[in-house]
Amino acid sequence: MPLSTDIDVAIIGAGAAGLGAARALEGTGLRVKVLEARDRIGGRAFTRQLENGIVFDVGCGWLHSADRNEFVRIAGELGFDLDRGRPHWTEQTFNIGFPREERLAYLKEMDAFYDRVEAAAESDPDRPASDLLKPGNRWNAMLNCISTYINGAELDRVSIRDTSAYEDTEINWRVKRGFGALVAAYGAPCPVELNAKVTLIDHSSTPIRIETSRGTLTAARVIVTVPTNLIANETVRFLPALLAKVDAATGVPLGLADKVMLALDGDGDALPRDGHLRGSTTKVGTGSYHLRPQGFASIEGFFGGRHARELEDAGEEAFAATAIDELVALLGSDYRRKLRPLSLSRWAHDPFATGSYSHALPGHADARAKLAAPIDDRIFFAGEATSPNFFSTCHGALESGMRAAAELTATPAALRGSHHQS
Q1: Rounded average pLDDT over 97-126
Q2: How many domains does the chain have?
Q3: Residue-wise over 34-73: b if at least 16 C-beta within 10 A, else e?
Q4: 16 in Cβ contact with 9 (< 8 Å)
Q5: Rounded to the nearest 5°, which phi and psi values hold at 373?
Q6: Which H or E run includes 188?
Q7: Are residues 260 and 320 in the same domain?
Q8: Residue 177 lies in a domain
């Protein structure tokens, strides 16, 4: 079906940022259209319902900084129940392979490391966070591993100033029916065109011309919310070219974090609900395992950085095979017959993401603000990578979309284009 050709605002991308912008523009009288390349809304928020009621958030799964997270309010309005149980990321069920005294020593070193990062970010030129590791320290591999979970990248690719700018209240909740399901319900009222991959935004004249896989349309204003990699590699092109935007997007690439969900057959009750195991404390490339999430008969494995990329490249079976090997080494050989793969993510191989969430490269902590800045009051930018303090999160993406919508409606031209006044 062809697209309607003439609108006031085109929003590129129906992830949390694009949906947030669209919802914020409700009631303005502006004709809005959200253009989404996928066959679903939600972007990197996506829930799969698996066998036996298992809920699998393929993308974002935690309401980070829940006491400041707009999605908590939205969940209440839409009737989505929350699990307010805290995560057990720093613990090790049964003390297997990571006894309590070692965990305490690690946590002490982790706090000291981030204190050094904070101090250096205030006084030093921007540089890689890996510079703040103590040479030969027992916990360096694990600190690097945690960075692959937090940033999707090892510390040598992470800016200390960007790390310092991130705000986290350390209150983390879950959506019982899935975070992706909540985002989809929030976006349900939005005027979205699916399977509409945008390839060119031609702003050389007025109105702006937008080329998509389903035809061409024109819009007075555009809000761009696509992941940074798609701007950096010019999957979405601008005419005239916006070289400063390409440069800014290149400075905040998407790291990689992936998950695998394993069914736990047999006497799964032997494992505690919401338990946790770390695959190894001596390797950068290892899994973090959430045992029986929300009480389901399953184990969710989490992998990041170069290790996740290697597993993606090895094929769909690699995540489950690696996870099962690590879990069997910790829990015993009986678990090899109890565990089987159910689902997984491969975000680097998703052509509309090519990664998971953004981190600033050393020397590029200012790229987020550069990426967020509007162009000529006609092209606006949103997405988690443009959030100054909540980047890499779904609520950061949502707030950025609302911010871009507010910037757009503050322009005099936006009011002139409002069709409810005619």
Answers
A1: 95
A2: 3
A3: bbbbbeebbbbbbbbeeeeebbbbbbbbbbbbbebbbbbe
A4: no
A5: -65, 135
A6: none
A7: yes
A8: no
Secondary structure class of 90 (helix, strand, coil): coil
Whole-prediction pTM: 0.96
CB neighbour list of residue 421: distance below 8 Å, 6 or more residues apart: 29, 415
C-alpha 56 chain-centroid distance: 15
Is the model's pLDDT at 420 over the cut of 50? no
Same domain, 334 and 276: yes
In this structure, the answer to whether residues 260 and 329 fall within a common structural domain is yes
Length of the chain: 422
Q: Judge if 395 and 248 occupy the same domain.
A: yes
- Does one domain contain both 244 and 261? no
Q: Which domain holds residue 33?
A: 6-41+190-253+357-421
User: What pLDDT does residue 104 have?
Assistant: 95
Structure tokens at 132: 């703040």
Residues 292, 300: Cα–Cα separation, whole Å? 8
Which residues contact residue 392 at a Cβ distance below 8 angstroms, ignoring those fewer than 6 apart?
Answer: 150, 151, 152, 166, 357, 358, 359, 384
Judgement on whether residues 213 and 276 belong to the same structural domain of the protein: no
- The one-letter code for the residue type at 344 is L
In a domain, 93, yes or no: no
* 236 shares a domain with 153: no
- Residues ≥6 apart with Cβ < 8 Å to 416: none
E runs forming strands in 122-193: 174-175, 192-193
96-132 in b/e form (b: 16+ CB < 10 A) is ebbeeebbeebeebeeebeebbeebbeeeebebbbeb
String of DSSP letters for 365-421: TTHHHHHHS-BTTTEEE-SGGG-SSSTTSHHHHHHHHHHHHHHHHTSHHHHHT-GGG
DSSP 235-268: SSEEES--HHHHHHHHHS-B--EEEEEEEE-SSG
In tens, the pLDDT along 75-91 reads: 999 999 999 999 999 99
Longest CA–CA span in the chain (Å) reads 73
Q: Which residues pair with 82 in a beta bridge?
A: 175
Token pair listed for 24: 């914020």
Q: Residue with structure tokens 């101090």?
A: 119
Cβ neighbours for 398, distance < 8 A, ≥ 6 positions apart: 16, 17, 19, 20, 70, 71
